[in-house]
Amino acid sequence: MADGSNPPARIRNIAELAKIAGVSAGTVSRALAGKSLVNKETRERIQAIAREHGFRPNQMARRLRVQETKVIGVVVPLGHEQRQHLSDPFFMAILGHLADALTESGYDIMLSRVIPNADDWLERIVESGMLDGVLVIGQSNQIEALERVADYYKPMVVWGSLHPGQRHCTVGINNRAGGRLAGECLIGAGRKRLAFLGETDVPELRDRYLGLCDAAKAAGLPAPEQFHVHLASDTMAEEIAGHIDRIRAGIDGIACGSDLIAMHAVRALADLAIAVPGDISVTGFDDLPLAEQTVPRLTTISQNIAEGAKQMVGLLFGRIAGTETGSVEMAPQLILRDTA
Questions:
Q1: In the sheet that 156-159 helps form, which strands lie side by side, from edge to edge?
Q2: Same domain for 182 and 298?
Q3: For residue 208, how many other CB atoms are within 10 A of its CB?
Q4: Is 4 inside a domain boundary?
Q5: pTM higher than 0.85 for the full model?
Q6: Of the candidates 267, 333, 338, 337, which has an alpha carbon nearest to the alpha carbon of residue 302?
Q7: Are residues 90 and 143 located together in one domain of the fold?
Q8: Which of 56-70, 84-98, 114-128, 272-286 comes out lowest in average pLDDT?
Q9: What would the pLDDT profile of 156-172 be if each residue is shown by its tens digit?
């Protein structure tokens, strides 16, 4: 033991600690894990020696020995939009809820923003041996990869749309129903010339556009126009500005593919003294916290992100435990505020 004048030498491994304590390495391992197989006096003595010498067991090595890492991979695939960043408000919202649920359950997170540059990008993640399971935020244009991996890797849950015959497990809302709600809201406000701002090569956003088309058809209105706007925030304003002349010439109701697109659209219209909702009604999609802080406050479709994140983590834990789980499809909800 140290006399107080010099700090004790640091212990590098269990073998060194066992030598100082005069016991076997197995006894040290069990004592540090708090196992009752080691009597209380010996256990406390070994733990005291470990503290004195600044020894902390390698938790990752222990976890790998028992085939459990206590690490969950959270993956954001951006095959459809390589310029989109994790700082996007939607990603920040769902990541926060996932992180809270996972860390409160004793798991660490390994976060990956992936630009799929090889067919086996997802296989390399799930077969790394570093993870107990994987949560994927968004299907992007990577349905084929998700389906292929889901055939053999069970502890994986994806935030996205549910389609007939789909094999990978998803949590998300019925995006087509959400798009229809947005359309019905605009039509209910007296709007007859509708448009969709957003991409349609992403499954979730394509369904939102199709839902808007459903609402227009049911009301006997022409099919809505579709104006392509990327999800990358650094290009939204410029792209919306490029559509603004066509919008102001013939559109009185806009359903946007995301809240962020809607916020940029409202700003672009305001810059041209086009009143929202007086001249043009606008709806968003997501119901991010920012949606009720804008002026005017954003009418939007809620994905219930908090509940969805909770469902994702619950399904993943069930799958890690060996339970076969199905997908969860939640109902969208219209949040009526000021822009429509």
A1: 108-114, 71-77, 133-137, 156-159, 170-173, 328-330
A2: yes
A3: 33
A4: no
A5: no
A6: 333
A7: yes
A8: 56-70
A9: 999 999 988 999 999 99
